[in-house]
Design a protein that fits this description.
By secondary structure, this protein is α+β, with helices and mostly antiparallel strands. It has 14 helices and 19 strands.
Amino acid sequence: MGGWQDTAGGLRFQSGKSARTGAGWRAPLRAPASVCCRDTRVNHFVPSTTPAEGLGVLLLFRLIDQATPDFFDPARPIQVTRAPGRLDVMGGFADYSGSLVLQLPTAEAACAAIQARSDDQLRLWSPCRDGSRTQRLSTRLADLGLPDQPIDYQEAHAFLCGDPRDRWAGYLLGCLLVLARERGLRPTQGFDLLVHSDVPEGKGVASSAAVAVAAMRALGARYGLDLPDRELALLCQRVENAIVGAPCGVMDPMVAAAGQADQLLALRCQPCEVEGSLPVPAELEFVGLDSGVRHAITGSDYGSVRVGAFLGQRLLAALRGLPVRQHEGRHHADDPVWRGYLANCPIAEFDREFAARLPVTMRGQEFLQQFGGHADPHTRIEPEREYPVRAPTRHPMAENQRVERFRALLQTEPTESVRQELGALMYEAHAGYSACGLGHEVTDFLVEQAKLRAAAGAPLYGAKVTGGGSGGTVVLFGARGKVWYEALRLKKALQQHTGHSGHVFRWSSPGAFAFGHVELRPAHG
């Protein structure tokens, strides 16, 4: 399959063996030096509503206006959607093992603007966060096999993600292809799509899920599709797993879609069951601090830990005498008690019956010779790699128990003893990352600094790394209004320790469905 490539004479689409044709371009452009979000006036369009400031949409209005008529047609309406990032308060990477998770949507979000075209072109525009450059790409529906027969996911991965510089396009056009393959969408006309995000990338706060959810919502608006939040989240997970190649769970897109401002979304990842939202107590607050260590869900640490958990699951099936069947290359145990999720095993039962019978580590080749494969469709067992097994298998059981207790405590009077126990659960969760091999010296430094501040009398109760670990963001828990100042203290300590000035995540905002959408109507008819 071809991809977008630079050429001496300009930028064009380079077709490959499939002989698909099209036109594409990547253009580094300079964005405006400053954009005032308080000024809601636009010359070419009139918004159907005026969103609250701080949601990123007002900046998008200005970008749209400045890109008209070069990118957008001033005579056609535009739909605007929005999806936030998230702070992983509890649950983390145990999502793929079925744990309960508690997640807080951030104020930082991805915003998308889509406009219908009368031809079959698909034009994408993605300005970077700091405004120093922008990226644009273009192709045609036919390059995705539309409207006749959409290309398969393997071909789509090679086409859309072959060049790392164009990986962002995999999230946007991947949404279109997933809708074609899973929902039967057969569009004959294309669109212009602008996506701008202020969710920092590589910080463990679901930047890619925010982009995918915003784009999927925009495509739903463009083609008149009803996409309930749960289905939308699962479709976005398919984009990341099958097209982009990221072995992520459904937690991130579900929070981006269904989250509520200042509330923890309680999600049981079996596979995607919302159990309500918990308001953050008025006296308490969760704040995130970027460690400066880039987290990647496709990294070897996360991947090996995830594989290790599924190796452990298969070993437990053998120890329990469960029948195993093969389907599409995966090995599934018939498990009426745990229903296929490690998180459903009580931690006391595991420690009593199974822990000592599982290996600490296991080489991939040895496992494959004994069992043939595992149940995870999104990771591959490498024969020569030594995988951790016991700790990744135990972690989701212990974490699920911690999250259940954390949720119960949040629904009680937040006395000092309750706050201390909540914080202790966060510290335990953080230690679980290190036990599995997903810790990092910089995030450990921040957590230890939080403990030192608490010991000195600061109103900090807990801290932990978020998401997939191995860097990323640390969540701080403490007294509302005061933990913010403690985050600034830790930011200063971090800068002195590493030279990095970390982004602080303080505010929350609504998910994509709570936000709704905005329509920009042509100002001149």
